[in-house]
Amino acid sequence: MNAPLRTFRAYAALAFCFAWVPVMYTAFTLDRGFSDAQYFLLWSTYYLSMVLAEVPWGWAADRWGPRPLLLAGPAVLAGSFVVLGHATLFETCLLGMALTGAAHAMISGADSAYLYELLRLRGREVDALHEESRTHLWRLLGVSFADLAGGLVAHAWGTSAAFDLSALVMFGAVLLAARLPVIRVAHAADRPKLITGLRQGLSKPGVLWVLSWYVIVFVLLRLGFQLYQPTLIAVGQTDLRLHGGLLAALNLVAGLATLLIAGTHRRLGEGASSLGVLVLLGVSFAGLAGLPTLGLLPLFILQQVSFGFLQPVGRTALNKRVASSHRATLLSLQSLLARLAFAGALFLLGGPAAASGLRRLDAAALPDLYLGLAVSCLVLLVLMGVWRRRTLDSESAP
Length: 398
Known about the structure:
By secondary structure, the protein is mainly alpha-helical. It has 17 helices and no strands. It starts with a helix and ends in a 7-residue tail after the last helix.
């Protein structure tokens, strides 16, 4: 492995280290007194902000190269984390979450586009899944360490310290991004316009299925993730050290799961590997519907194995189907659609659902919510399986 790839992996290990994530529910609801509806509104704002910024940043990466965004993203995130860590007004936190979403969108898609172009320029496109998986492993190892450190720091010095730690890590990511080599992009005149590039990419066989699968799995995983802390609290586990340690262990599991991707993909193929992720999620949610009679850890692990597969499989499947001229734009669209769908799901939980009785995610409300997620997995598994059988055959048609 050459120096740019080593630097890129190190960058990935830092750029997504949000050490405040394992204590985010406690930080906003228990420490500052925000309601669950306000908590969901904060996250809806974050995802809606990402949605608005995703495609414009992707287009900018295609036009001027992804490296400037890899530099700017962590720098802006550092500032937004400081705001989120010390603001007490709900409106200020809303602004901080909007800034976080916009900054996160800078590196969402641009990182994968940079990696694929780095490999393409060296004639190594065949290694894309392997390198995406290894990069995701390093990313998750960094997240695992951040989760553990965030829980310990929050327990010792308060949840605001976890936000400050995250800001420091972002500065480290900026320094690493500055060491990445510049990738030359084609002259702007040779690149298709934004709408033209999107239309060309979406017309490729299989692209719509890949985008839909990514969106579905992303939403299910993120809903499950948002329920981790409420689930632990519902069964009486309130120690923030436990929360941070558990999320660290689970992200480590997700990282180790990436080591299985290449072998699984080779044996089962893209379709079965992708649909198998929905099976794992369905089993996890069905088990959690029995809260708290069944062990939580094995069921959480199933979700994290699925998370380990999401980005390497989803991004590589899209990368191999689209052209370099609009690669970052399509990757940003993939992320945009996923986050838009999740923002809608959070709005349903924090808005109308809250008004109709879901004011607190507790032991009484969680089982029904988990059961609904399990049924959704089953229905979506059937629909996606039928769609793949009927439409993706066109990729191999003469």
